[in-house]
Amino acid sequence: MKTYRWFFLATLLMALSLPASARHLPDFVPLAEQYSPAVVNISSSRERPTPESESVPEVPEGMPFGDLFERFFGERGPAPRVPEGFDRRSMGSGFIYSEDGYILTNHHVIENGGEIVVRLSDRRVFTAEVIGSDPESDVAVLKIDAEDLPTLRLGSSESLKVGEWVLAIGSPFGFDHSVTAGIVSAKGRSLPSDNYVPFIQTDVAINPGNSGGPLFNLDGEVVGINSQIYSRTGGFMGLSFAIPIDMAVEVAEQIRETGTVTRGWLGVLIQEVTRELADSFGMERPAGALVAQVQPNSPAQQAGFRTGDVILRFNGMDVPRSSALPPIVGRTPVGSEVEVDVLRGDREIVIEVTIEALPEDVAMGRRAPHSTPGEVRPQSLLGMQIEPLTAEERDELGLDDEGVRVGEVTGNPARGAGIRSGDVIVQFGGEPVSSPQDLRQKVESADAGRSVPVLLHREGTPVFIALRMPEQ
Hints:
The protein is of the alpha+beta class. It has four domains: 37-143, Trypsin-like serine proteases (Thrombin, subunit H, Beta Barrel); 153-258, Trypsin-like serine proteases (Thrombin, subunit H), CATH 2.40.10; 264-357, PDZ domain (Pdz3 Domain, Roll), CATH 2.30.42; 379-468, Pdz3 Domain (Roll). 19% of the residues lie in helices and 36% in strands. It has twelve helices and 28 strands. The chain has helices at residues 2-17, 20-23, 29-35, 66-73, 107-110, 245-258, 275-280, 299-303, 325-330, 391-397, 414-417, 436-445; strands spanning 39-47, 86-96, 102-105, 115-119, 125-134, 139-143, 153-154, 165-170, 178-191, 194-202, 214-216, 221-231, 238-244, 264-265, 268-272, 289-294, 310-314, 317-318, 337-344, 347-354, 356-357, 379-381, 384-388, 404-409, 424-428, 431-432, 451-458, 461-468. Strands 22, 23, 24, 25, 26, 27 and 28 form a seven-stranded antiparallel sheet that branches. Strands 1-2-3-6-5-4 form a six-stranded antiparallel β-barrel. Strands 8-9-10-13-12-11 form a six-stranded antiparallel barrel. The radius of gyration is 28 Å and the shape is elongated.
């Protein structure tokens, strides 16, 4: 009996010693009750070719209550109410942020066009006008003809902390006003297809249909717009990403004022600074964004940026990794004069640049040819065969007098550095390479055992790699 008594007392003392936040989970009931009325269901539809075409979405495999749908309504489920002559094509969520009917949602929710139907929690249904949308940020602004609507308070995603509780309300699989909760897993996440959005990553259960719905903090403020799911199954068992509300509001204001979104443009192609590249540049640790190419007639070219520069700070803001730079530049007002801290060689310099508007069509580079000259014998160097380029090939690649092509990769250190057959070596150690003989001279003068930055053109795209010189 004494043993149990001591165990109970010890457990009680441990519980009392925990912080209040750890002893009590947050109560989400008031948030759900107060803010659900301002969350809406959005469906887009377009004219269907024949009355016999599909009019209801299939019940997703593994969906909760799917067996009940089949039992009570047949295999296809109950027919939803859609406008006559139309076929529902997509479902999502959104929220009202002004009493006169302005709604925020995702671009991909309404991108298919057709009629946009908005359903409120009180079962009123409106046809919405698309004020505008922005594919780059995945933000869209809708307007319904109504007044005195319930609205949500917009908070600040900048003040959001990793580990903080958040709540999502939306319409997963068309089920209105479903509530899920979790924590902020990370901030400033960059996804491969979205360079201009520093996403909020959460572990909140987000499913198809939640897109465009609000992400709340515990103060009931909207801090994000749920946008994407990374999952092996297509369901919520994965990572969820939300657009920071600060960015979404900036985009929405531009859409309402001008109908379009303008972003700042620097005009450089960048890549990550790896540990090996950092060592080759003499950096203590990897940081910043490595300039792989300066685009012609860009603000960067006019300001004097060079290939091989490492951007460390932009307008006073640190650039911890390359993915952090595009959102910072994109949000910089067009016409602003900013200072950029750059590592060039072994010293830091400050470059002043005037930011311009991002062109609608920015050149992505030309594809490198795969032809090989048949009359020139390749030279073997550092585990690779080197071949010269003709004047026509250089002109096609947009090069002046530099560049040699890699033929067969036969061994290290080229193979270990990731050099491939067909790569064009443009720079070695920050200096242009004009011929196989020029490259050999630069290799022979490089310090043994040191990593050297090498600029390649790989299928039209500039790429830096670090090539470690063999020990003597």
